[in-house]
Structure formats: structure tokens, C-alpha cells
Automatic annotation (TrEMBL), chains A, B:
SMART domains registered for this protein in UniProt: HTH_ASNC
Cited PROSITE patterns: HTH_ASNC_1 (PS00519), HTH_ASNC_2 (PS50956)
UniProtKB keywords: DNA-binding, Transcription, Transcription regulation
CDD domains: HTH_ARSR (cd00090)
Name of the protein this chain belongs to: Transcriptional regulator, AsnC family
MF terms (GO), sorted A to Z: sequence-specific DNA binding
GO cellular component: cytosol
InterPro entries linked: ArsR-like_HTH, AsnC-type_HTH_dom, Dimeric_a/b-barrel, Tscrpt_reg_AsnC-like, Tscrpt_reg_AsnC/Lrp_C, Tscrpt_reg_HTH_AsnC-type_CS, WH-like_DNA-bd_sf, WH_DNA-bd_sf
Provenance organism: Actinosynnema mirum (strain ATCC 29888 / DSM 43827 / JCM 3225 / NBRC 14064 / NCIMB 13271 / NRRL B-12336 / IMRU 3971 / 101)
Gene Ontology biological-process annotations: response to amino acid
PANTHER family: HTH-TYPE TRANSCRIPTIONAL REGULATOR LRPC, LEUCINE-RESPONSIVE REGULATORY PROTEIN
Length: 153, 153
DNA sequence: TGTGAAAATCAACTACA
DNA sequence: TGTAGTTGATTTTCACA
């Protein structure tokens, strides 16, 4: 991992469909050298994948909520996590320190669906209580942080 | 937006570097037809962009925290949001309903940096109080929700 | 909207410094 | 690791159904 790798990573975070030739021009290497580097970054798990980002409301998912999940005394975190993964509306799932055990982000078409979804969450064994915060607007999301990407670490 | 568009979207969310030829084979269209459709989905803002997803700790961002931001009585939400956008460590920013005005996700290299980052947050005019929840592990994140993508809506 | 064909570009592999 | 060259696939555009 050197400065060139970090440049490539930054470029691919910006545009995941950039061609190797594009990347090569940007970092001053040939396309095949970039190809080689990207392959290694993928193989070593630095680059996890490439995804199209879609406007949620365009695909009928206009309601976003952040939900804190408080565990019961006997809750098994792994089982709760597996049950959360079963719910397709749960887009992200974080195991956290503090009173709650998990914080999840949920996307659903309507508030009716949110209500139904909360019902499903509360039925999960190990879930004692939930606290729901409805997102009014997403100012930005998943923005690339290139703070350390430009440094040698 | 028909069922074929939704299939294409689902495929591109899964693999943002899929070729038009691949997508065509998957949905039963020619590459040029897919090219045409994807161009329209991009132009109409359904597909917002394509991004490589990077393992945060591989780029020196091993600490993730979710921070609730409580506003002062006189806070201007837009100004707060703009100030939050200036902080590169703030990866996502949600305006929410409830006591807090914003919930942000922050990624930093170390807990020391988290402390420094919290100091920066609290200096923002309009920010009265923050509540920080440290992420212990990310079970999954930004997972594609294809619930409605397969339907006609 | 779609197909099919053509030219330019690119991916992926191979030698070789 | 890198460049350069090669081959087959892909992108992109265009005429046309």
C-alpha cells in the first residue's frame, strides 16, 4: 500500500466504473500496472466491492429510520444479528457500545411499512425495546473520507 | 421504469462494475439496449453514482462512531449541516425527527482522533450537546434492499 | 425501444526490462 | 513492479426495424 494505491482507491471511491486506462492516466502508470494493483487491492480485501448508488425514493424506499435496539438480559448478540440480517429492510447493522446493543438503519416504502417493520424487530428473541428515529432528510451519506488515504500509514 | 430497469439496478447495486454485455445477458437484452437504459437511469437521477467500497481499517479508519447532535434553541439547521459537511471525518449526515437535530456517522483512525473530532463538532454554532455511540463492529452496511426493486411501482 | 454492425476502446494475458 | 504488445471482449455510436 503506497501513495499510488491510495490515489487509485480514492479515484475508485469517486467513480467505481473508472477504466484502468483512466486510472493510469490519473496516477501516471500504464493500464496494466493499474490492473495489477487493483487486482491485489481486491484480493487483499482493501477494496471490498463496487456498487451503484441508487436514489432510495426512486425505487420506492422513501422512508429511512435509525433504530436503537435494546437487548434483554439473556440476549445472544450473534443470534440477534442473524435475525436482523434476515430482514431485508435493514440496510445497515452496527453492534455498538452503550445501553443499546445494536443500531440499525432501515429503509421502507411508507410509514405503515415502518410500523410493520418495527413489529418484526420486536419479535426477535433478545430484543427488549427499540427506539426509532425517523430521518427527515439525508444531507449526505457514505461520503469518501480521504483524510488518511493521502498519507503513508 | 419497468421491471427490466429494476433488474438492471439490482444487478448494478450488486456489482457496480458489471459490463453492459453481462447485464444484457442477465435481463435478456442487447448490450446497446442496456447501455441506453443505464444512461437514462443515470440522467434521471435514479442511479446516483458508482463507488468502490473500501475496508475502513485498511485505509486507517478503524474507529466508527454514531453521534447524536442536539441543537441550541437558536440553531440554524442548514448552517449546522454545512459545518458538518466541512468535517471530512463525517461520512454520513441525517437530519432527524426527535430531540436531536442530526445524527452523523464519523470515521476516524483512533479514539484520540474521535475525541478531537467531538471537540470540533461541539464548536459548531448551533450545537448544544452531542451523544456518542462507538461502533464495536459493523455486521453489515449499505446492503442492497431489493424488496421493491422487483415489483412494479 | 429495440437490434445488429462497425470502429474505438478496454480488459486480460504474455513476454520481457 | 513496471512497460509494451497482443488478442478477444466491450463500449459506444449509428442506421434501421
Amino acid at each position: 500500500m503506497d501513495a499510488v494505491d491510495r490515489q487509485i482507491i480514492a479515484a475508485l471511491r469517486e467513480n467505481g466504473r473508472a477504466t484502468y486506462a483512466d486510472l493510469g492516466r490519473k496516477v501516471g502508470l500504464s493500464a496494466s500496472a493499474v490492473h495489477e494493483r487493483v487486482g491485489k487491492l481486491e484480493a487483499t480485501g482493501v477494496i471490498v466491492g463496487y456498487h451503484a448508488v441508487v436514489d432510495p425514493s426512486s425505487v420506492g424506499l422513501g422512508v429511512t429510520a435509525l433504530i436503537s435496539i435494546h437487548p434483554t438480559d439473556t440476549a445472544d448478540d450473534n443470534e440477534v444479528a442473524l435475525a436482523l440480517a434476515e430482514l431485508t429492510e435493514v440496510e445497515s447493522c452496527y453492534r455498538v457500545a452503550g445501553d443499546e446493543s445494536f443500531i440499525v438503519k432501515v429503509r421502507v416504502p411508507t410509514v405503515d411499512e415502518l410500523e410493520r417493520s418495527l413489529g418484526a424487530l420486536r419479535k426477535i428473541p433478545g430484543v427488549a425495546r427499540t427506539r426509532t428515529t425517523v430521518v427527515l432528510s439525508t444531507r449526505f451519506e457514505g461520503r469518501p473520507n480521504t483524510t488518511t488515504v493521502g498519507l503513508d500509514a
